[in-house]
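Entry 0007
Protein: Transaldolase
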Amino acid sequence: MSKIAAIKPLGQSIWLDNLSRGLIQSGDLAKILREDGIVGVTSNPAIFFKSISSDPLYTGDLAELKKQDLTAEQRYEALVIPDLQAACDVTRAIYDETNGKDGYVSLEVSPTLSHDALGTISNAKRLWAAINRPNLMIKVPATSAGIIAIEELIASGLNINVTLMFNLKHVDEVLTAYIRGLEARVAAGQPVDRVHAVASVFLSRVDSLIDPQLEAIGTPEALALRGTVAKSFVKVSYEHYKKLFHGTRFAALKALGANPQRMLWASTGTKNKAYSDVMYVADLIGPETVNTVPDATLDLFRDHGVAALTLETGTDTAVANMAALRKLGINYNLQGEQLQTEGLKQFDDAFVKLLALTA
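Output (structure tokens):
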């Protein structure tokens, strides 16, 4: 068994954080799904920029689209919508076999709408209709506007991948928005058993921001926390998830067939070479979770990763680590807001570059 495939029996779904026309048409996507037990795909503006700028399979179609009276965004969508449909078709068997738990392909709403709730709702519904696949997930950021949009989109029956969560405020707002959306469906007499969502916590960016602050403080206590904050936050977030979705608040919805909004670990490629190159995968394996992993990190785990139940080990230490961070004067809630703002800008910048390709 592939070392990646060995994660699946432990209750965690591994998704691929990459998508391109070449990956689909070459059969490579189907191959890694089959051989590594990968059960989903995620994309973002940076991924599509890389794909469209480097994959020759887009060249002819893009040239033809540039002859048409379309906006740059319309050309971008005309390029990627067929790819998303094709990827959904490749993963559809997984969706059917898992009764909708996995087999998803994720597409981001326009990053220009991150603070526009109504615009996000409209954009998401339009993309959902255009792609017309039940195993599509629409990605919405966990901004204040995004929270409003998430509730409405869940109530409308869309599958949602919430992105850019960095602190417990984000986690709590996102998970409760999902529940409110399901409750609205129930109130409207709509079924809830086929609505699925994930809530994505981004990891490597956390340690990239916090580690230099710990080094500047320089005490043994501060230095001991380097490389631990992102993983500690994930473990604390997971405890929040379990209390909510295995508690009384969700019980009535669960009785109606509703699915929990699984936690997803994103940005899981290690940036600091001093740390294990698979730590955001190997150290966070646990049931009812998803990890979306870039190709390079999958290759590393395939080579020397070890699949074991690690997510629920060291929870007390994780709580202590977050408390120690506060004692050092680092306000993690504020850091999370900064990280979300920076993440939004990175996606927006990537989208600008992407549209420049199709202008």
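Curator remark: The longest helix spans residues 332-358. The radius of gyration is 20 Å.
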